[in-house]
Amino acid sequence: MAVIRDLLPRLTRALPVLALSLLPGTAAALCDVTHKVQPGDTLFTISEQHYGSRDRWTLIYYANQGILAGGGRELEPGREVYVPCPAGDVAPDATPLRQADAQMTLLTGSNYSPFTDRAWPGRGMVIELVNAALELSPSPVPYSIGWEDDWSRHLFPMLDGKEYDMGFPWLRPDCEATPDDERCAGFHFSDPLMELPVMLFTRAASDFTYESDADIPGRTLCRPAGYFTHDLDRDDRRWLSGGRIELVRAESPEACFERLMAGDVDAVTVNAFLGASKIVAMGLRGKAVPVEKPLSHEALHVIISKTHWRGTAHLYRVNAGLRALRASGRYNEIVSKHLRIFWDQLN
To answer: Cα–Cα distance between 33 and 175 in angstroms, integer?
Structure first.
């Protein structure tokens, strides 16, 4: 009996790993454990060690936002990170408050998977996060979510003209450095819905390295036209205003990757999900690869016009609901589910 009692705690800890290893089509993984960071570890190598695939590093990234946020983004040896098991088929939350002709209206658009997309399960990760947060908000009110797939119409005229109360998901520029930016000047931002790692993608045979910002001056980077550039010119970089890099603005992400493979640029810089999707869609797997250190971290927000008479009340509901969602553990379940769907579809 004593032997059985000694084994029970270990068996209990092993159950999530065993359950994952028995899922159809899923390789055995060592998950629902903490990993003590060793010298040379990256999120990619930890993912390969625990999941058997470097691609699933974002599972670890989002499960450790508390220690990877702010100044603690580096994986210092000795730090412990949590390695979650990928979520299974988690059903979307009930949305009794989401109603047609509701008191509070929100605007989003499609073709931004895995965040918002009509064809994505649950219509996207951020859609499910917003739904769940608004259902948990204090003094909740009925709300509706409308779709406009021409994103260039969202800020002006639709949100500025109060056709909708709030819009999502939007990146926040560096408003402290550029207060005259149209988003900064015209809109309030919620707390972050989630953070995006912005990566560098280079040719697999390239000698390109990025271990610190000192490795970037003199390089030629490609980022699609119309995409933000504030991370390249923040106070501690000034890569653009100081003429320290050449930035190519191709007409699309695909065009950037074509320039990369032609040898015209050293790296493409877009968010991790967009880059991974384009590599697979363009048949570049094994030819174009992400550099394992994120170039920057950008957050997605709900926004509302500064001239909206209920702006403070609406943002309070969103922010309070997000805090409740994170505290409940449901936030991590939703994110993990969509990450699993994303990487499964690519693989």
So the answer is: 39
Q: Tens digits of per-residue pLDDT, 120-179?
A: 999 999 999 999 999 999 989 999 999 999 999 999 999 999 999 999 999 999 999 899
Which residues, including other chains, have CB under 8 Å from residue 8's CB and lie 6 or more apart?
A: none
**Residue 69 has what pLDDT?**
60
| Separation of alpha carbons 279 and 100, rounded Å | 39
Q: How many Å apart are CA 206 and CA 328, to the nearest integer?
A: 44
Report d(CA 257, CA 236) in Å as an integer.
Answer: 27
Show which of 27, 53, 83 is a domain's final residue: 83
Chain Cα centroid distance, residue 309: 31
Q: Is 239 in a helix, a strand, or coil?
A: coil
The pair of structure tokens assigned to 3 is 């032997």
Alpha-carbon distance 184 to 189, whole Å? 9
Structural domain of 265: 195-297
Q: Kindly report the CA angle at 54 between 259 and 201, in degrees rounded to 5?
A: 15
Write the pLDDT tens digit of every residue in 176-222: 989 999 999 999 999 999 999 999 999 999 999 999 999 999 999 99
Q: 309 pLDDT exceeds 90? A: yes
Quote the Cα angle for 258-263-264, to 5°. 80
Residues 283 and 341 in one domain: no
